[in-house]
Amino acid sequence: MSIRKQLQGYIAAKDIAPEHVAAALQVSKLRPNHGQWFTFIEQLLLWCAALALVIAALFFIAYNWDDFGRFSKFAGLEVLVILAVASYLKWGKQALVAQVSLMAASIAVGVLLAFFGQTYQTGADPWQLFAIWAALILPWVIVGRFSALWMLWLTLVNLALVLWLVDLRPRWLFFPMYESLLWAMCIVNGLALVAWELILRPCLALTERWSFRLIATVAGTSLTLLALEPIINHNEYSQVDNTAVVVWGLWLLVSVVCYRYWRRDLFMLAGAALSFDTLVVCLFARLLLNDFDIGGFLVLALIIIGLGVGSAIWLRNVQRGWQQ
User: Fold this and answer.
1) What is the pLDDT of residue 223?
2) How many domains is the chain built from?
């Protein structure tokens, strides 16, 4: 158990007097001191400088588009990529500088591809830009071992997949376009979450929680929207397809078991509870509000309050069980 969670347990149990909480935070080093604030500001400025440099190069070339020749435009962007990679090779032992350098190089590659398509008008579909971009920076993503870089790569993969489905509309799709997009987002990000938990986290030491929580949020939101489809759009003339509801139920069960007993994470359990509450509320809204009866709104409000309170109590009991 982390020091933060232990201290939260002591404060909740009133083992630490309220007037001593500030001192406890200072002793446990959970409250940042002047040196930590200085480090944070230094890192923030470094990230802002790298981002500003890439954006400045983009706008500089765009503003002087008519004044530069083709080779001048590409040379400027290629020099930016080379400088970023050279910075990584020179200061690779400094983790932050190396991460910023690879991130800047990865973004610059995308800008370079965009200028290439704009200059030569290749006629390529937009999804190809993101697919090629993701393929080109994949070696850097693997070498960098940086969660934000993996998130950039996964975002490109999602964009390429969505644009590919929208542009080509394959005939083998089993669902309408809206549902197909949600299924694609759910499957891709679900597989990414499994790979993150089983491969990337142990092998590449990617332990930042925000990254896999973001992936889980996208996958869970997509699956929840799919499960809502047969509830919201169902009518007496339509045929109900409960595939998404079944998959959603299995996902909910696996998520609760994994993140309660295997890899404890209250955020993931809260997301599962929110998904469950959303589906139940929509189901009762469908049943109670067909005639817009005022009594139905009252009952629905009570159901929402009950689900919210029940979820909060369950999450609190789970957290207390972990602290024992």
Assistant:
1) 92
2) 2
